[in-house]
């Protein structure tokens, strides 16, 4: 079962990468090209509009392919920024303890008190729309799991024999963190990153669905779902196919993260 999870997850990630990188070559049409004479066309499966068109005559398949670029970019950016911030604060707080750790925990509690989506909505509504703003809004709370996990692991590692030996040989605190602590928490970071990317894709789609994501001229899966709301009963394909794209991508990332966790967690491997 773990093998299937890993294969499916890797397959979905590979497909997302291929669509993102090769979208100008894979998409049969430009994503924003309008053809009102072909509006609301159902899927013809073999014709010029395989998955149909939307209310403005834009090709659904092309928009899904181009939308993968935004989803991948935001997912990777949020995961990178969240991991850098969370791991730094978690390792520093867990290793030094005392007032530094207390300050880190207070900041964590403040951000943890806000619902993630509500905090993102507040940031975007206050600052404005834009790709960078969306990444910042989604990162605002998603660094906390990284911080908590790395802090706990660092606290378990800092009194281990090899850490004490490094200190006794004159190694500085930052040398110990970089060469002994971080390598031992890397596997946990990799596993969390897979889940963080899946959560970021869902959150970005939610913001775009509410009209608070990236600007409207940028094609996103959440924006496609938002456009389909008024036509859900008469043009089912407008909502079905971008919804499937989100579902399969998030499922693949979650299964990949689950497979990695099963592979690297000795407690799970023993069962």
3D structure, described in words:
With 271 residues, the protein is mostly helical. It is 73% helix and 0% strand. It has twelve helices and no strands. Helix 1 (2-21) packs across helix 3 (60-96) and helix 7 packs antiparallel against helix 9. The protein is elongated. 39% of the residues are buried. The model has no long low-confidence stretch (mean pLDDT 88).
Please supply descriptive tags for the structure shown above.
mainly alpha, 12 helices, 271 residues
Radius of gyration: 22 Å
| H and E order | HHHHHHHHHHHH
The average pLDDT score comes to: 88
* Main sheet record: none
Given as residue ranges, the uncertain stretches (5+ residues, pLDDT < 50) are none
Secondary structure class reads: mainly alpha
Determine the strand fraction and express it as a percent band: under 5%
What is the helix tally?
12
For the termini, the CA-CA separation is 13 Å
Helicity range: over 70%
């Amino acid at each position: 079962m773990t093998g299937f999870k890993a294969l499916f997850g890797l397959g979905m990630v590979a497909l997302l990468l291929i669509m993102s990188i090769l979208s100008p070559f894979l998409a049969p049409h430009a994503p924003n090209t309008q053809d009102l004479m072909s509006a609301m066309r159902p899927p013809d499966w073999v014709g010029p509009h395989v998955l149909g068109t939307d209310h403005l005559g834009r090709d659904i398949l092309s928009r899904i392919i181009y939308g993968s670029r935004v989803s991948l970019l935001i997912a990777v950016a949020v995961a990178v920024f969240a991991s850098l911030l969370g791991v730094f604060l978690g390792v520093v707080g867990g290793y030094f303890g005392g007032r530094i750790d207390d300050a880190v925990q207070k900041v964590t509690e403040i951000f943890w008190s806000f619902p993630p989506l509500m905090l993102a909505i507040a940031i975007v509504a206050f600052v404005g729309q834009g790709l960078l703003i969306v990444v910042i809004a989604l990162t605002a709370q998603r660094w906390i799991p990284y911080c908590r996990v790395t802090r706990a692991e660092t606290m378990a590692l800092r009194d281990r024999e090899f850490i004490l030996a490094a200190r006794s040989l004159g190694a500085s605190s930052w040398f110990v963190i970089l060469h002994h602590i971080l390598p031992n928490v890397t596997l946990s970071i990799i596993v969390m990153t897979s889940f963080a990317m899946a959560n970021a894709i869902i959150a970005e789609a939610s913001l775009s669905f509410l009209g608070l994501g990236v600007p409207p001229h940028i094609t996103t899966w959440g924006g496609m779902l938002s456009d389909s709301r008024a036509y859900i009963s008469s043009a089912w394909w407008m909502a079905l196919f971008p919804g499937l794209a989100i579902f399969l991508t998030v499922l693949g990332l979650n299964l990949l993260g689950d497979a990695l966790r099963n592979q690297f967690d000795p407690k799970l491997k023993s069962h």
